[in-house]
Specification:
By secondary structure, the protein is an alpha/beta fold. Helix content is about 40%, strand content about 15%.
């Protein structure tokens, strides 16, 4: 059974605490989703994701799994959960953003997007119908309507044409759905133009989805412009449905977005930055390669109880990074995902106690200091 319910709301705002039920378990919201692009979160086993980082749900990538190893093979082998050894909830994106990033290798038409594979140059097409077919074959608990991710910068007319194409594709995505054991989310586009965002919201809600996402952000528009969209349109997404902000972001971004009523987030930042030796801490980001940590016996974050912070010093973690040891990425990823998931858990606790705004203020004061 798949459903969403609001447990409570902030008394003087729009931040809310919720729960999504899926065939593979519950998702407590607000939540963060680690990105498992190719049916794996880099450097992590599924057991580590669940037990060491407290991850509730993982995001996998339709476009990449379509190209390799292929959705039909994954379906034959029992679906993406069994394929990757993850028995918790799983969301697949539609492939729209990945096709958008191909730029010169793709052509966008009414029927869909024709593109050449960066793996071998072979020619393929993704359409609303094929995207839904692929996601249903993968067996995800939450799937996304196929959209065109509007680039930045985009002129008003370009953004308008893009959102209208996305709206037509949204109708086709819903019409091509065959399974009823998942949630299908629609995506709001419109770039940074408020009237176009409003138009996209109206058109997408008219189609009728199980959840709604703000897309087309974190593509170069800058933090201020992103916050303008989030703060205006987060609260306007249908209240009784899950609200998902795609591809965002920093701890500050998450807090601002929760305050605007958003429930779900994903971003490569904690895992990608981990591989580059950057740790998120309650006192702000820490770059482990710096020489000042060479003899530092303290943990990365003295208020973190993750496996990395319980067992290893900054000196050792710096040694691993400068030595280019694989364990460096593993331990940094455990910490960063634990940090993100602990932040979301603390947000949920603050919402339960009616003190979210105070928690947001206190966290950001320490983090920015």
């Amino acid at each position: 059974m798949t459903e969403f319910r609001i447990i409570n709301k902030e008394a003087d705002g729009v931040a809310r605490r919720g729960r999504i039920s899926t065939p593979h378990g519950l998702i407590e919201t607000p939540c963060f989703m680690p990105v498992g692009t190719k049916a794996t979160v880099k450097g992590m086993t599924p057991k580590q994701l669940a037990e060491e980082t407290a991850s509730q749900i993982v995001l996998a990538n339709t476009y990449h799994l379509f190209l390799r190893p292929g959705h039909e093979l994954i379906k034959k082998l029992g679906g993406v959960h069994k394929f990757m050894g993850w028995d918790g909830p799983l969301l697949t994106d539609s492939g729209g953003f990945q096709v958008f990033s191909l730029s010169s290798l793709r052509r966008i038409e009414e029927g869909g997007v024709t593109f050449r594979s960066p793996l071998d140059g072979s020619r393929h097409q993704l359409s609303p119908e094929s995207s839904i077919e692929i996601q249903e074959a993968l067996g995800a608990d939450i799937i996304m309507a196929f959209d065109e991710c509007t680039p930045h910068p985009a002129t008003y007319s370009e953004a308008r044409d893009s959102l209208e194409l996305t709206a037509r594709w949204a109708q086709r995505s819903k019409a091509s759905r065959k399974r009823d054991d998942n949630l299908l989310f629609g995506i709001i586009q419109g770039s940074t133009y408020p009237e176009l965002r409003a138009s996209s919201l109206e058109k997408t809600v008219a189609v009728g989805f199980d959840g709604y996402a703000l897309g087309g952000l974190s593509v170069g528009e800058g933090q201020a412009a992103m916050y303008d969209v989030v703060e205006e349109f987060g609260p306007k997404l249908p209240e009784l449905k899950p609200r998902y902000l795609m591809g965002v972001g920093t701890p500050e971004d998450l807090l601002v977005s929760v305050a605007a009523g958003l429930d779900m987030f994903d971003c490569v930042m904690p895992t990608r930055n981990a591989r580059n030796g950057m740790y998120f801490t309650h006192q702000g980001p820490l770059t482990i390669k710096q020489a000042r940590y060479r003899e530092d016996s303290e943990p990365v974050d003295d208020v973190c109880d993750c496996y990395t912070c319980r067992n290893f010093s900054r000196a050792y973690l710096r040694h691993l990074f400068v030595s280019k040891e694989i364990l460096s990425s593993v331990l940094a990823t455990i910490h960063n995902l634990s940090f993100y998931n602990r932040l979301m858990a603390d947000i949920r606790k603050a919402l339960d106690k009616g003190r979210f705004q105070q928690f947001k203020h206190d966290f950001l004061a320490a983090y920015k200091a």
